[in-house]
Amino acid sequence: MAGATPLRALLQRDGCLTLPGVFDGISARMAASTGFDALYMTGYGVVASALGVADAGTATFSEMLDRVRCIAGATNLPFLADGDTGYGGLLNVDRTVRGYAAAGASGIQLEDQEFPKKCGHTEFRRVIPADDAVAKIRVAVEARPAKDFLIVARTDARYAEGLDAALRRAERFLEAGADVLFVESPESLEELRRVAETFKGAWLLANMVEGGRTPYLSTAELGAMGFKIALYPGSGFLTAAGALQLVYRHLKSDGIGTGSKAPMLPFSEMNELMGFPAVHAFEKRHGLSGSQHEK
Fold first, then answer.
1. Contacts of 291 (CB under 8 A, 6+ apart)
2. Sorted alphabetically, which SUPFAM superfamilies does this protein's record hold (predicted)?
3. How far apart are CA 203 and CA 196, in angstroms?
4. Domains delineated in the chain
5. How far apart are CA 6 and CA 27, in angstroms?
6. How confident is the model at residue 171, as a pLDDT?
7. How far is CA 56 from each of CA 43, 111, 160, rounded to the nearest angstrom?
8. Please, which residues bridge with residue 19 across strands?
9. How many Å apart are CA 100 and CA 67, to the nearest integer?
10. Is the Cβ–Cβ distance between 204 and 192 less than 8 Å?
């Protein structure tokens, strides 16, 4: 993380911070190269890309931790990482927070769903008792190694129990020490405004999912309401999946990879993005370039 502005310091600036969803080394490097100040490791994207299955509680702590390490190694930008439900009880939450911090994340998002959890914009989500959810946030705050490691407390109670219940839970999360409040999937502009008005002065996160349950707004619109973080977790993997569909269909029908409607990064630019110039410089410095390398 050397040279990166801590995420807490970024949130102390004026305005609303845009966090793009990243899910592997390529997406992390690409997002960093386009000038974002911070990133978000999306659970949906990680589960889809690493396991090829639905984000429905199937990923384990160790599998998610591998992606935290991957993203931390691919860029020095600070990033929030999806920690799902903490992968078990209170001891598991303690281990998860410590593990994510040691692996290079700048903060963790923890939610109050029952296990197995599901993507926050899908059906059939249930939440654990409020007291149990608050206990998880208290443990997370206690387990973090430093105050700069942020605890994002998410509630899915809007879907399961209604907005009033979600707001009550968020209030208790704030009292338990959460740094950022995340009321998942408000279903109207009025509900978004009510969240913002209820927690004026608190750091609030809004989750913008293309085709999801919440009205889809820009960072500027969310900032004007009072939100501090505008999360766009699916923009990257939805676009990547659409491009793959186009190029693979073209390859199947025409027998060649070029010429589809999908944008294709030039091979030279991909090499640059992934760090080949540094590899070549290393090899040259250590006498491994050219014919010597092949001996």
1. none
2. Phosphoenolpyruvate/pyruvate domain
3. 9
4. 7-233 (3.20.20.60), 241-294 (no CATH)
5. 21
6. 98
7. 10, 13, 16
8. 231
9. 10
10. no
